[in-house]
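Reminder: ligand-aware prediction takes two inputs, not one.
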Amino acid sequence: MTIWSDYNPVRITSGPGAIDRLFLLDPPVITGNRILMVTSAGFTARGVTEKIEEKARKAGLENPIRVFDGVTANPELDFLDRMTITLRREGISGIIALGGGSALDTAKIFSVALSSDLEIPLDMVLRQKQPHVWKNHIPIVAIPTTAGTGAEVTPFATVWDSRNKKKYSVSGERVYPDHALLDPELTLTLPPKETLYTGLDAISHALESLWNKNRTPVSEALALKALTLANKALPAIINQPDSLYYREMMQQAALMAGLAISRTRTAIAHAISYPVTMRFGVPHGLACSFTLPGLIKHYTHALDHGPIKTVMHETLKTVEELNLENEMATYIGEENLSEYIEEMFHPDRIGNYSGILTDDDISRLVLFKTEK
Ligand SMILES: [Zn+2]
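Here is what comes back for the chain with zinc ion:
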């Protein structure tokens, strides 16, 4: 037996219509006189931003919300630093994050970067490797609109530096959102591809925390439950995208998988994914799951019979039926991904995998065949 401990400080409010509680949270998170809303342009176009502004007016917020709807997929380091410098002048007192993983990550970064005393925070900490602990934090409510990333409950955020072909992680105690507000109705309009890819991300998170060296009894319970729910919900949503019942089930699966990786962090499938996203633009959820069939087979081969093996085999069936090789073929043609193995070997990720893999094993994992 080893000694383990457990911690996650994020309060959670969940259920259909939960968005109406945004300004009624207990304890309140959105206080002060300058609230920033971080989202992407699509939510403004669809009128969601305006609805939240209206709720703020009704709740008696002193000033109109400052909307930043410039979030794009895979947030870039230099852009985040530039926005930080601009937003610092505005005295932001609270942050509402609404959107997928990139919106939530952007908001989490603003939360610590805006309140840090570093002039150009991400460049100094991530690129120049200046030793730094994020000590301050602007309170943040995270409202996920996809069911996958779990970013609403994790203490890390991904930052991309496409100029230098690098990916970084902003992490630490202060990076956790204060409150996660989960409303499955917000996921009903998620397009089919995003539903599939973000759902796969959740499955990947649950598996990664199960075959993780940092696994604890708590992370294991969360991940097992996440997989049981996702194996049922994801195939069901693909056929019935309007089902609030399955949308809610998938959202819970993603939340539990997020809670699991908040304890263990991710592992090999994510290590492999980053160069694949950086170099070929493969969406995160697909990039971190096309290797899952091979990895499940590799990991369960030596595993004793029990609930983990059973649920992993069920997950293998779920993932195999989704034909991820064909999904990958829309992004990658003849290129040989094994050329990037060195970039995939990120010790703080791949080192979390509790199985043993050689370079040859990884070359085989990243080789995918397409149906001709
Ligand atoms: Zn992920």
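The domain at 189-366 is CATH 1.20.1090.10 (Dehydroquinate synthase-like, alpha domain). The radius of gyration is 20 Å. We will return to this case in the review session.
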